[in-house]
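Reopening: structure tokens for the flavin-adenine dinucleotide complex, inputs below.
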Amino acid sequence: MAEDRNVAWREDLRKGLSNKERTAIQRVKMNELEPAYRARVREEVNQGLTKEQALVEAKRCLDCPNPTCMTGCPVSINIPGFIKNIERGEILEAAKVLKETSALPAVCGRVCPQEKQCESQCFYKLKLKKDAVGIGYLERFAADYERESGMISVPEIKEKNGKKIAVVGSGPAGLSFAGDMAKMGYSVTVFEALHEIGGVLKYGIPEFRLPNKVVDVEIENLRKMGVTFIKDCIVGKTISIKDLEEDGFKGVFVASGAGLPRFMNISGENLIGVMSSNEYLTRVNLMDAANPESDTPINKGHNVAVIGGGNTAMDSVRTALRLGADRAMIVYRRSEEEMPARLEEVKHAKEEGVEFMTLHNPIEYIGDEKGRVVKMRLQKMQLGEPDASGRRSPIEIPGAIEEIDVDEVIVSIGVSPNPLIPSSVEGLQVSPKGTIVVNEGMQSSIPMLFAGGDIVRGGATVILAMGDGRAAAAAMDKYLK
Amino acid sequence: MNKIVSKENFSENVVKLEVEAPLIAKSRKAGHFVIVRVGEKGERIPLTIAASDTQKGTITLVVQKIGVSSTKLCNLNVGDEITDVVGPLGKATHIENFGTVVCAGGGVGVAPMLPIVEALKKAGNRVITVLAARNKSLVILEDQMRKFSDEVIIMTDDGSSGKKGLVTNGIEEVINREKVDLCVTIGPAIMMKFVALLTKKYEIPTVASLNTIMVDGTGMCGACRVTVGGKTKFVCVDGPEFDAHQVDFDQMLMRLGAYKQEEQADMYKVSKQ
Ligand SMILES: Cc1cc2nc3c(=O)[nH]c(=O)nc-3n(C[C@H](O)[C@H](O)[C@H](O)COP(=O)(O)OP(=O)(O)OC[C@H]3O[C@@H](n4cnc5c(N)ncnc54)[C@H](O)[C@@H]3O)c2cc1C
Ligand SMILES: Cc1cc2nc3c(=O)[nH]c(=O)nc-3n(C[C@H](O)[C@H](O)[C@H](O)COP(=O)(O)OP(=O)(O)OC[C@H]3O[C@@H](n4cnc5c(N)ncnc54)[C@H](O)[C@@H]3O)c2cc1C
Ligand code: FES
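Re-run output (same inputs, fresh job):
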């Protein structure tokens, strides 16, 4: 790292422009579709930076001797390394630097909570109290540039070592693991329960935030590297881990995610029109239900309330707008400050006309004679002392109850680990929360079985899932040698 | 993949399909189901695995045309491939020798009941099957049921076949004449509700196999949820079979109507094609 900062071209860049000049530049604004237009279409909201914008933004980075931003990145991406490559115009080189650590930069550039990670630790933020360098924007720019240049390099593959490896689940953890193992010469097969490859990246995160084509390119690349994908195959049901072992698979990486929706168990939750965000987003994203050509039905609500304050809630409420809702509301029991969603999603949602009912918690849903939800009762809340998560916990204001009209409610209060694998493998150590227990090398209590991503962490993030996949690949390679 | 190797029309609206699916054939047990999808714009629908042949690597589905997706599937022919077939899903039926078992099916429930009748018979039970339909032309799978039942009682609303009356009349007749150890019921929610009320009166343990709306079939979405014994359950992973005396059938009935309007509009489109 230190050496690479000392290479001649980087020293020249630093000398070329003073820090004073660099810090005088304003943070770039992302090019976005107009709120009024985009709130009714599926097109991606963020249009990315132009090359000119990216070159200017890259100048803001001071190439700090001690790049604190990297400590904010869960996988320690060489941030100044890739940004300085952008500054000198070597965009493909920048993409290469990103790929040394991240298997999915085009995805992470779009969906990482940068304001809590790298950008929160940027020198501008910490010391200058200014807007951080647009690290996420630049990451996305470099990755998109590479993809659109048609010059995506298929990584070098070591000679096949004849060892078969199975991956359970094709989300970010499974995909990044598969890529690294293929590079090392293993024969990798990915088993996916659904009829699409990509996990949450496909069935969860909507097109307006992460276009399918971005994910498809990554999958296509893995295919070119020799990775085999088998869809419609549920490990633990269609085939067992034991079958895989008997079939000659030497290692299994479980990346089955946290796919189970949680409900609040309040009265009226099973009325028609009340559903999990997983159901809603799966219908719209995976089954394309809003398209009249699709056989899968969806009810398009007029007054839609989404319960929760995370990314999933934002994705659901903005999807509801795009399906034509007159009123789309976020109902969240804490205040906006405690919302776990990415800052940008909250901002976008507001611009698009989403109403935020913070400090409100649903206590009952009321239906009509056909069993359709027509009203919800909300308990108003106030903030008390910080709880275990460090956020101020919501407490009820006695007697402050409100009723509002709704015809669709989307419950988005979190997910639990998928119990299929944990319950189908004997002797596998599982935590009380249902996550698979692993050591630092992502190895479970069964030596040939490794695990990572949401099945190990509970609902987490794409970058952590990706990082787990890569860590598991390195560890499994060691284990199999 | 998923090639149809044989097709037989049981009646105008009921088709038997034998489909290549070697892995599922090997791992499935009675009561398991699969999710199938026909075409890239197709819907995912659940269907019970009626039988399997591990040698040939095939599974058998008995499908009744009731809406768009089941019609599309029934319109496929030998040699065609089903876009997606995934499974086996759900919990297997608990099969043992209970003694005398009454299997009561009607409407959409008759097809999925066939493998259960067969498994119960093979486990040594005395199996009395009660099939209910509005009229004679809607009675399906009678011959197949006879093969694995000690007795088949047909009930029609108008008396055009078997006896005139409801499924519950048929069951009650058996209860009045001999000791029944278990009742299994599959059919429209309203039918299962009345079967459950009847057997509750006689304190006969009763299992209902619930055919709720599903999407993924793996516990991921909650579309299939029902209330059983006051608790929310996911039919695709916790079921599809439950203690019928604990199921909230009124709620299930309502939830089945969730997409009625759109389904009817879609059906209209298909019938015009
Ligand atoms: C709507 C939504 C929005 C989100 N937004 C963000 C965001 O903006 N930023 C961010 O960082 N994170 C976000 N997340 C979280 C992030 O997507 C997850 O943390 C991440 O996808 C986890 O990756 P994974 O590989 O562990 O699992 P998943 O992506 O969940 O993939 C698991 C896959 O395994 C399959 N599977 C499960 N069991 C089996 C089995 N037995 N056999 C075969 N296949 C199986 C599943 O079908 C699935 O495809 C969001 C999540 C959702 C739902
Ligand atoms: C676990 C399980 C196993 C099943 N096994 C079989 C099987 O082996 N063979 C078979 O033919 N069917 C079976 N079914 C039912 C089958 O899945 C439905 O018939 C199918 O989904 C209907 O889809 P469609 O698009 O053709 O009809 P839709 O257009 O979805 O429905 C048409 C009309 O039928 C009603 N309807 C839809 N689904 C049901 C239902 N499940 N019960 C009662 N009314 C309904 C709708 O309200 C609508 O009015 C099973 C269902 C489940 C949950
Ligand atoms: S069908 Fe989705 S959870 Fe049962």
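Chain A has a mean pLDDT of 94. The two ends of chain A are 28 Å apart (CA to CA). Marking as resolved unless the reporter disagrees.
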